[in-house]
Amino acid sequence: xxxxxxxxxxxxxxxxxxxxxxxxxxxxxxxxIEKAVKSLTKKAEQIKFLLYGDAENPPNNDVI
Length: 64
Fold this sequence. Notes:
By secondary structure, the protein is mainly alpha-helical. The chain has a domain at 10-52. Helix content is 62%, strand content 0%. It is built from two helices and no strands. InterPro entries: ARM-like (IPR011989).
């Protein structure tokens, strides 16, 4: 992750996932689809971290 990256709120993640899925469903521009897939991959990792945490950070129950 970028040094200047701020954590996204769960509702922001969901909205951006919906946007990326809409781009993929349009199936018009291959580069836009590829970019949306990469973005979805990163967001899926962020959502997984929010739900499950990692070895050093437990999940935040307030978010769940």
